[in-house]
Write a structure and sequence with these properties.
Helix content is 71%, strand content 4%. By secondary structure, it is mainly alpha-helical. The protein has a 5-stranded parallel β-sheet, sandwiched between helices. Strand 4, helix 23 and strand 5 form a beta-alpha-beta unit. It starts with 12 loop residues before the first helix and ends in a 5-residue tail after the last helix.
Length: 597
């Protein structure tokens, strides 16, 4: 007898999340270069693959692509540095202009003058507080301390050696250079051994998850690569527009501000503000009046508004797969975790997490929390508003979700599933009497209004001989569904009669004199639709009905090739209609002389 294998206890999600955040924070010196390297491999991988198609070996291809990329970045960085130094050296020449503008503001605004006076007074107080005060003993005696005779001031001068200078500045210089070096090393190895790393990751995820893991990797690579490329193109256009606008305004170093704007825009939210502030301050100092500084502000504002609200959503907004709230939260989260670098990496990292949750059932919550795909079906949204006892908003949801769709599809895809949810909650005792009555009454009113708006004049309807008799199987939900189906049949000229729920439908059918070419349709809404429909069908068959019997098991579905529909038809001795459209089609077939099997 084999012993049962004890399953290892799993950590609560909150503890696992806390551990993951702690690892990312304390090991950020390793993870930041690794994250940049992954992004570079996504971005430069197609170029390396293209060189491979030209029969260039993988190692030279990876090194060549990285050298070209690094050279371009170095040239741009050198240009920006030189231009910034030259701009900084020219700032003292604009001191008088800045002073005149400040004096004009002080003269034109008393509030500004009071602010400036308060700042000056605060500065004087801080200066006096930092001045050494006489000792308490001298204050009590009232005798000032006599200056010492023949005392020379002594100043201790410490030699600043080369070793000390290297020690002070090496850390500030070597730290970013070390990070850049790690990024390049990681990128080279990832580009060289891309297939090997992919295979190892697939093996770690398990050979039984090959399909899901492959889809996740391809989806993440496609989304991140496309996002970075599109963002680079959009930012380049942003920089070009800014440079052109500043050139026509006569702002110095217009090309520098365009290049800085292009790169600073990779920082979500704060990047465009920083890019605007530098040329604004320069124009404020260099130009007379306020026309040019305000024009610079208008140029940045309208350019960012157009690109951010029109261009970006059209080009790559849908390709990230992230909701707007997720982008904001991820920016704050990664900035707190990794500083300004985290702000740059926030969107790509969050895209990878969202894709991971899409293909991993254990991490599905990530895709639900971060993704932009609807997490509730239209029927669930409609039903939730009804549960909240908000009839007006429920009607607005129904109008918005069903806009541009035929009424039959709205009933099949939204209203009937919502009725099924309400019936399920009622059967399980989760729906109180007040909400049950509110939901039934509201849906009944919605259906009545929509059917009246969709009604075809009687004079334009066709006249058909086949009559349809509707028998709800159990409750109010079945009656509402029967009324929906009867509406569409009536519009097509079929005389339709709906009855309330009755305990003896067979006696009613005999009394009505139902003929063989008529159709008797049982309306049943899940979750217990089959059982209720079977009771009605049995009663009708015992009454000796000879007409066509159709069971509207609304929302019923079965896998292709399944024998379940055949078993159900045999059990009910009736044709199965899972949707209103199918029920209408079956009645039309009966009218043509084609009886359902």
């Amino acid at each position: 007898m084999s012993r049962p294998v004890a399953s290892s206890p799993s950590l609560p999600p909150i503890i696992g999340f806390a551990i993951a955040v702690a690892i990312l924070y304390f090991a950020r010196e390793l993870f930041i270069p690794l994250a940049f390297a992954v992004l570079l491999s996504f971005l430069l991988g197609p170029a390396v693959k293209q060189l491979g198609r030209w029969h260039i070996p993988r190692i030279p291809s990876a090194v060549l692509v990285l050298l070209i990329t690094s050279s371009v970045v170095a040239v741009v960085g050198w240009f920006v540095t030189v231009e910034l130094i030259q701009t900084a050296e020219s700032l003292p020449a604009y001191t008088d202009n800045v002073r005149r503008k400040i004096e004009a503001l002080e003269g034109g605004s008393r509030g500004f003058s009071r602010v400036m006076s308060s700042l000056e007074e605060l500065g004087h107080q801080m200066e006096s507080a930092s001045t050494p005060q006489p000792k308490p003993g001298h204050l009590l005696s009232g005798k000032p301390e006599a200056p010492a005779a023949n005392v020379l001031p002594v100043r201790i001068v410490q030699d600043y050696t080369m070793v000390q200078m290297v020690r002070d500045y090496a850390g500030e210089f070597l730290r970013p250079m070390g990070t850049v070096g790690l990024i390049l090393v990681f990128s080279v190895f990832m580009l060289i051994d891309r297939e090997g790393l992919r295979n190892r990751l697939l093996r770690l995820m398990g050979q039984g998850q090959l399909q899901a893991t492959t889809k996740a990797m391809d989806d993440a690579g496609h989304r991140v690569s496309r996002y970075i490329l599109m963002q680079f193109a959009v930012n380049a256009c942003f920089g070009a527009i800014i440079s052109a606008g500043l050139y026509f305004m006569g702002v110095p170093s217009y090309l520098l501000w365009g290049v800085l704007g292009m790169f600073l825009r990779f920082l979500p939210y704060v990047g465009p503000v920083i890019a605007w502030m530098l040329p604004f301050l320069l124009s404020l100092a260099e130009k007379e009046g306020w026309t040019i500084p305000l024009s610079v502000t208008a140029l940045f504002f309208f350019t960012e508004m157009i690109i951010g609200n029109l261009v970006e959503p059209l080009l790559y907004g849908v390709h990230t797969g992230l909701s707007a709230v997720a982008i904001v939260v991820s920016a704050v989260f990664w900035t707190v975790l990794w500083g300004p670098v985290g702000l740059v990496l926030a969107t790509p990292m969050t895209v990878c997490l969202s894709v991971l949750g899409r293909y991993s059932p254990q991490l599905e919550f990530l895709n639900i929390a971060l993704g932009d795909e609807p997490v509730l079906t239209p029927a669930a949204i409609f039903y939730q508003r009804l549960l909240a006892l908000d009839q007006q908003e429920a009607l607005e949801v129904l109008d918005s979700l069903g806009k541009g769709r035929p009424l039959m599809e709205i009933f099949d895809d939204i209203v009937i599933p919502a009725l099924a949810m309400a019936e399920r909650d009622r059967q399980t005792g989760q729906l109180d009497k007040r909400r049950e009555e509110f939901i039934v009454q509201s849906i009944n009113e919605f259906v009545t209004e929509l059917c009246e708006a969709d009604a075809v004049p009687v004079a334009k309807r066709e006249t058909r001989k086949t009559r349809v008799f509707f028998f709800p199987a159990f409750g109010a939900a079945d009656e509402i569904a029967a009324a929906m189906c009867a509406h569409f049949l009536t519009q097509q000229g079929f005389p339709s009669i709906t009855f309330p729920v009755t305990e003896s439908p067979g006696q009613l059918v005999r009394a009505l004199g139902v003929q063989d070419d008529d159709v008797v349709l049982i309306s049943a809404v899940p979750p217990f639709a089959v059982g209720h429909a079977r009771r009605v069908s049995k009663d009708l068959l015992e009454a000796g009905i000879q007409s066509v019997l159709v069971a509207g098991i609304w929302g019923y579905s079965a896998e292709p090739g399944s024998v379940r529909p055949l078993r159900l038809q045999k059990s009910l001795s009736a044709a199965i209609a899972p949707t209103l459209r199918n029920a209408v089609e079956q009645v039309r077939n009966v009218e043509r002389g084609v009886r359902p099997v």
